[in-house]
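Recall the central idea of this unit: under ordinary conditions, the amino acid sequence of a chain determines the structure it adopts. In this exercise we apply that idea directly, starting from the sequence alone.
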Amino acid sequence: MESFGVKVEAEKMLNAVFLPFISKSHLLFVVDIARLFAMHGVDVTIITTPSNAAIFQTSIDRDSSRGRSIRIHVVKFPQVPGLPQGMESFNADTPNEIRSKIYQGLMVLQEQFKQLFRDMKPDFIVTDMFYPWSVDIADELRIPRLICISGSYFAHSAMNSIEVFAPHAKVNSNSESFLLPGLPHKVEMTRLQLPDWLRAPNDYTYLMKMIKESERKSYGSLFDSYHEIEGTYEDHYKTAMGTKSWGVGPVSLWVNQNNSDKASRGHRIEQDAEEDEVLKWLDSKEEDSVLYVSFGSMNKFPSPQLVEIAHALEDSGNDFIWVVRKVEDGEDGGFLREFEKRVKERNKGYLIWGWAPQLLILEHAAVGAVVTHCGWNTIMESVNAGLPLATWPLFAEQFYNERLLVDVLKIGVAVGANEWRNWNEFGDDVVKREDIGKAIGLLMGSGEECLEMRRRAKALSGAAKKAIEFGGSSHTKLKELLEDLKSFKLENVKNKLEAVA
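Accordingly, the structure predicted from this sequence is:
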C-alpha cells in the first residue's frame, strides 16, 4: 500500500521554482525556459521583483489563460540608499555607482530568495548562472538545481580551453593570433578579444570561478541550443566539464509561436502603434531587401561610432531598420533625428527608438540579413528566421559567438570589431564606415559567398523547427530530463517514507 502511495505522489505534477537574473537578456532566457517547462506540465513559479515582472507579465498571463500552471511571485526590491525607486535591473544606461547599489539590493534579497525556496518546497529549482549560491540551498533541501547558462556551448567550450591551456599567455602581443587548443574546429583569437577577467584576474574572475564550481555541484545545466546547430560542442562541453547538460532550444521559437507572444516578448505593452507602423513599412518592401541592425539592450556606442554606422547604412543603398537607444537631443539625439528625417523622406530607412518587436521583424519576408552584437538571444532568433549575420561583438562572450558564426557555422561575416570591452565602457576604437559597408555588401549581395551563407542559414532554420517538434532533438531531451526529475522526486518520496517507517 505504501509503495502505491509513493507512486501516486510521484505521478503528481512536478513543482519548480525559477529565479531569473535582473538583466534583460538573462531574464528573457530563464523566463522562456520557465514557460517551456510549464508547457510540458510542470507547475511553475517565477520569483522576481516588480519592475522585472512587468517586462514579462503579459506573456505569463497569456500562458496561464491557456491552462498552463505558471505564475509570478513578486518580491519587493530593497530600499538601498541612493537607489532610485524602480531601478532594479542592469542596462546600458546604468551608471557605475547605481550598479553597485543594485548589487547591494541583490545581496539583501539573497536570504529572502533562500527562504522562499524553503517555504515553497519545490521538487527542483532552476536559477540563473549569476546565482551560484542557489546550489547550496538546493543541497540543503535535497532537491536538484538546474543552472541556466546564457550563451552558446561553443562559447563556454572556448572559455574552458583558454582557462585550461592559457594559449593567450604564449603570444608576444595583444593583437597576435593564437589557436584555441582542444576544440573540434580550428579557431583563432587574439588577447584583445578576450574578456578582461581572463587576461588578468579581477573580481569577475572570482565570480566566474564560483559559477563554474556551482555548475559542477548542480544537477545539470540548461542551454538555449539544439543538436543541429552545435551538437559537437554540446558533447565537447559535457566531457570537458564532467557535467550533465541539456540543450533544449530554440526556447524562444518553442514558447512564442503566435504573433501575440512574439509581439509582447520582453515588453511591458502588448501592442503599440510603433509595431503596426514598422510591420506596415516592411510590407511595402521586397523579399530579403531589408537589413535589420540591432546591438541589444546593453549597448552604448559613443557619438563617433553612431556617425560611422549611419553613414555606412546610408551609403550601402539598402533599406534598413536600425534599433537605437533612446537619447536626449543634447547627446547624439540631434544627429540621429536629422538622419532619421533624411532616410524617412527617401523611404530607405526606419529608426526604432528603444524596444523593438524583434521576433516579428526578423520573421518578416522583407528582412534579408542582420547586423548584431552577437548576443546569443539575437543569434538564435536570427537563425530561427534563417538569416545570415554581420558580426559586431562588444562584451561578455560575444567574441566567441562571432567565431562560431564566422568560422564554424559559416553564416556570418565579421564587421571588424577587435577589442573586448565592458558593457558600459567604450574606448577610442571606432569601426569605420568602409568596413561596415563591406560587410553589409557581402551580406546583402548576390555573390556565391552570400548565397551560400543564406542556404546554410535556411538549413539551420529548418533544423531549429524540427528540433522542437515531437521526436526532435530538443523535444526528446526535454522529455528525458523531465522523466529524470520525476524519478528523482520518486526516490525522494520513497526515502522520506522509509525514514518515517
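Residues 2-148+469-500 form a domain with the Rossmann fold fold (CATH 3.40.50).
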